[in-house]
Amino acid sequence: MGAGHAHKLYREGRSPVHALPPHCKIAAVFCFVLVVVSTPREAVWAFGVYAVLLGGVAAVARIPAGYLLKRLLIEIPFVAFAVLMPFIAEGPRVAVLGMSLSESGLWSAWNILAKGTLGVAASVLLASTTELRALLLGLQRLRMPSLLVQIASFMIRYGDVISDEMRRMRIARQSRGFEARGVRHWGVLATSAGALFIRSYERGERVHLAMVSRGYTGTMPVIDDVTASRAQWTYAAALPLAALAVCLTGWMLV
Question: pLDDT of 7-37, one tens digit each?
Fold first, then answer.
């Protein structure tokens, strides 16, 4: 993890949120999501307050609303599932715009949409203000199992290598006049996928042997030791603590 690795979600900036240590931001987002999930679905107003809190973080981090909304499109499959719930769920029915919908299905759909959207938005903000390398260092600092951190690190490092290999294979097929136009061409694509798997596996073996020959014993050396001051922890805790106050209020009012 010695070299930096930029990713498409990251938006370079010099805001106070960008400057926070990565493990502080990871812990804050994790606690925020836990609080959101724990909020009763009947406290509709609470989710509006959570959205305002995330909007405040985005404003401090100088993340444009359009940038954030565009990356929320990743949850469209879950939205489609939630939209179907009022039609397929059982229980008492209510009339909405001339349609007979399940009352429990409506509440379930709202629960999924509200909590899922807030969770995805918080994750997007984390990714937009933290580089991948810093995220891995933050996970390591939070004592996440070393093997999982290493797997994530290698996945990030060699994802682009595999993508480039796929691109070269596609260009090679096109240079020979191949174009996938139907089911009868699936065999060629399957053969290419098998070749890509074998090449990736062999590359992984070579990388592992090179690491072992250089003294790798199952753990990666920590090059940058990221620390956080009490003030930085307090600053990062502002979001989950505010959300916790909203959650407790929601439970009292329900």
Answer: 677 888 889 999 999 999 999 999 999 999 9
pTM: 0.79
CA atoms of 190 and 180, how far apart (whole Å): 12
Distance CA 100, CA 96 (A): 6
The CA–CA distances, whole Å, from 6 to 3, 27, 56, 158, 233 equal: 10, 22, 25, 13, 25
CB 140 within 8 A of CB 128: no
153's CB contacts (< 8 A; 6+ apart) are: 1, 136, 220
Helix (H, G, I), strand (E, B) or coil at 101: strand
CB neighbours of residue 61 within 10 Å:
18
Tokens 């939205």 found at: 79
- On whether the CB atoms of residues 109 and 83 are closer than 8 A, the answer is yes
CA–CA separation, 130 and 122 (whole Å): 12
Both structure tokens of 159 = 């994802």
Q: Tell me what pLDDT residue 245 has.
A: 95
Per-position b or e across 65-88, b if 16+ CB within 10 A of its CB = eeebeebeeebeeeeeebeebbee
Would you call 211 helix, strand, or coil by DSSP?
Answer: helix
What distance in Å separates the CA atoms of residue 74 and residue 32, rounded to the nearest whole number?
Answer: 20
Residue 92 phi, psi (nearest 5): -55, 145
Q: What's phi and psi for 185, nearest 5 deg?
A: -95, 0
